[in-house]
Each structure stands twice: as structure tokens, then as C-alpha cells.
Specification:
Elements (H helix, E strand, L loop, with lengths): L8 H10 L5 H5 L1 H6 L6 H13 L6 H8 L6 H4 L7 H8 L4 H6 L2 H8 L20 E4 L2 H5 L12 E2 L7 H4 L4 H16 L3 E4 L2 H8 L12 E3 L9 E11 L3 H5 L4 H9 L2 E5 L15 H4 L1 H16 L5 E4 L2 H17 L7 E4 H8 E3 L4 H14 L1
Length: about 375
């Protein structure tokens, strides 16, 4: 089941009935770990939706709030032994009135994003190669912050894609999601490869219901190019890594990233406890539910700080915000504790590491390798 395959009522019923009530979703849900409220985990949400379907429950603000208490991390789905498509059910069941649709429209979303432009007002818009069949999927946040993706030895073009549309889907705007996914696939159709540097964008686009299934094979995350590249750090540094939830959802696990980090000479990698636990921000979840987001982010911060690393790395713009925020709070209140610097993995490699520049023949071989990895 892909996100763009809109569930019908009978499919929702089938998924709800597939739930064995085992409760394994409790152990992995970051929200439930904080609230300890059965209504806030996947099992509880499914039961509430089923009650609404049968008419035993009437939709009210409490139920809507329970359904909204979701970081969209997908851990319940990944760990469900019955294979319940929990995320798809929740997205389908979010009901919006006219005002809700407006508040979650492209206009309002872009208005919110425009605030980020203040942080990059004096920065230049990144320039990429004008002609290339390797395209870069520039996420909304990267675009507003004018963040440039650089992979030494690889030349690519900005594909000028629309938003991956996860912010709309997670708010119940499946209509916008379908339009954007259709638009983006048309661009992907004419590319050899599409490179991502945002875990959420990568996971979302991989879940498109592609009209041409071969287009899915063109999608690669930038770390795929680092698997066969030789690195060495300019100075000795201790690092740790936070695995974004959506990177794990897309099939990239912590071991894959660790293999890259451990291969960098003059670098000491220390794995944090629960490296793949959610950092708590979940898009704008931290705005809607600040207390829960704060508690989750502080847990992650403790795990980061306990590694005694110089730098904590990740591969998601929202995770960067979350980690930067939690490190900032800890820096204020824990004066005698070493607080790691927060960086994107790609920025870290470009700033601290030397990379052997490959010849054109080797670059083409890497591109072919990336195709086979997805």
C-alpha cells in the first residue's frame, strides 16, 4: 500500500481487523512513552477509528487530538507483526473542514516556510550544473535556507521539484499530495538518477504510487555515493550519529551509516544509545504539542551528550533543528558538560574530510552502483 493509493473504507476495516492487539506499538511509539495513554498509540488510535466507523463513538475534539498526537515516524508500522498500514489509515482518516483545508493549503505552508528565509537573507542561492541527467531533489527547507548539496566528483542539476508533499498528506490533504506526486514523477521520468539529502523527502517519494515502477529505481540518498569513497579527516574528531526516522523507513539502517563513518580515517565514531529513536520535532509537531516534543528531544539530547562526542551528525533538516535546540538548552543549564556541535553528515564530510576526486569513468560506475542499491 502506497500513500497515494487512497484507502477505501473496506481497506481501512481490513487493516483495523488485522491488528492483533499485541501492543508492540507501545514499546516503539515515542509519544506513548511520554503520555502512557493507550489512546495515543497506534492500537488505541485504530480502536477509536473503528468506533467512529461503527457509530459507537462520535467525533469530538478529544479524539481529533489523540489522532493528531503522532510524530509520523512510522515506527508502529515498521514493528507491526500483523502488517497493519497504520500510517496510511491515520492519514486517510484525518478529516478537515473548509477552514482546515485552507490552513493546510500550499499557500499557508509556503507562508510558514517564508519565515525561514530570514535566516538566509544574506546568503546566495546555490548554483548547480545547468545540464545533467542526475537531478537533485531540493527539499522545501533546504531551498528556503539556501543550503547547497555538494558531493565531490558528482555533478548534478537542480530538478526544480515541488514539495514531496508529506506535510500535506500528514494533515489530511491527500488531494494536494496526489497532484504534487504526479508532477514530481514527470520530472523523475526524464532523469537518470535523483539525489536526495532530506530523509523525509526520500522516504516520501519512495512511497509514491509510481505509474512507471522503474522510476522508483532512480531514487538514491546521497550517502549511497559515499559507500565506495575514501575519506580521511583533517583532524582527529569524535562523532556520533542520530538516524532520522524517515531514513530508517526508507530502508537505510544505522549499520549502513556506521560503515561509512567507521571508514573515515582519523575519526572516532561512538554509537549513542537508541540512535534511531525519534528526536521529537516531527515537522511542526513541536509547535502543536511542545511539551511532548520537548520531553522526547531532551531524552535524545542525553543520549547524545553521554557519548562525549565533539559533533553529532544527522541527515534530516528537521532533526538538525531538534538536535540544535536540545543542545542549546543543555548548554544553558549544564555548564560543566561537554555539548557536541550539531551538523549534517554531508556538511561534515565537505568541511572536515578530504575526498579522493574520482575520474569520470569511476563516477559513472558509482552512479550505476547507486541504481542497483535502491
Amino acid at each position: 500500500m502506497n500513500y497515494t493509493t487512497i484507502m477505501q473504507d473496506d481497506e481501512i476495516k481490513q487493516n483495523i481487523l488485522k491488528c492483533s492487539r499485541c501492543g508492540l506499538c507501545q514499546g516503539v511509539c515515542p509519544v506513548y512513552k511520554e503520555t502512557k495513554n493507550e489512546k495515543n498509540n497506534a492500537r488505541g488510535k485504530l480502536m477509536q477509528i473503528w468506533g467512529l466507523k461503527k457509530g459507537d463513538l462520535a467525533l469530538n475534539s478529544k479524539i481529533l487530538n489523540n489522532l493528531d498526537l503522532c510524530l509520523n515516524c512510522g515506527k508502529c508500522k515498521l514493528n507491526c507483526p500483523s502488517g497493519v498500514h497504520t500510517v496510511e489509515v491515520f492519514c486517510k482518516e484525518k478529516q478537515l473542514n473548509t477552514l482546515g483545508k485552507f490552513l493546510n493549503s500550499a499557500f499557508i505552508f509556503n507562508l510558514k516556510l517564508s519565515i525561514l528565509g530570514l535566516f538566509s537573507f544574506f546568503k546566495k542561492t546555490p548554483k548547480y550544473k545547468k545540464e545533467s541527467r542526475i537531478l537533485y531533489f531540493e527539499g522545501c527547507i533546504a531551498k528556503k535556507l539556501k543550503k547547497k548539496l555538494e558531493i565531490k566528483g558528482i555533478k548534478f542539476k537542480n530538478g526544480n521539484f515541488k514539495c514531496c508533499a508529506m506535510p500535506y498528506l500528514s494533515k489530511g490533504r491527500a488531494d494536494v499530495y496526489k497532484d504534487f506526486s504526479y508532477y514530481n514523477e514527470k520530472i523523475i521520468e526524464n532523469a537518470d538518477l535523483v539525489i536526495f539529502d532530506c530523509a523525509t523527502c526520500y522516504s516520501t517519494v519512495k512511497n509514491y504510487s509510481f505509474k512507471n515502477p522503474k522510476n522508483k529505481d532512480k531514487l538514491v540518498f546521497y550517502t549511497d555515493f559515499y559507500k565506495s569513497t575514501e575519506f580521511y579527516s583533517q583532524k582527529s574528531i569524535t562523532i556520533t550519529y542520530h538516524l532520522p526516522c524517515h531514513l530508517k523507513n526508507s530502508g537505510i539502517n544505522i549499520e549502513e551509516i556506521e560503515n561509512i563513518l567507521n571508514s573515515i580515517k582519523n575519526i572516532k565514531y561512538k554509537k549513542m544509545q537508541n540512535a534511531d529513536d525519534c528526536c521529537g520535532f516531527g515537522g511542526d509537531f513541536f509547535i502543536r504539542h511542545p511539551k511532548i516534543a520537548y520531553l522526547i528531544s531532551m531524552k535524545k539530547a542525553c543520549n547524545v551528550i553521554n557519548t562525549n562526542a565533539d559533533i553529532v551528525l544527522t541527515s534530516c533538516p528537521t532533526c538538525l533543528w531538534s538536535l540544535a535546540f536540545s543542545m542549546f538548552i543543555n548548554k544553558i543549564f549544564r555548564k560543566n558538560v561537554k555539548i557536541p556541535k550539531v551538523m549534517d553528515l554531508n556538511d561534515f564530510i565537505n568541511r572536515y574530510c578530504n575526498i579522493r576526486i574520482k575520474q569520470e569513468k569511476e563516477i559513472n560506475q558509482d552512479a550505476n552502483m547507486c541504481k542497483s542499491l535502491v
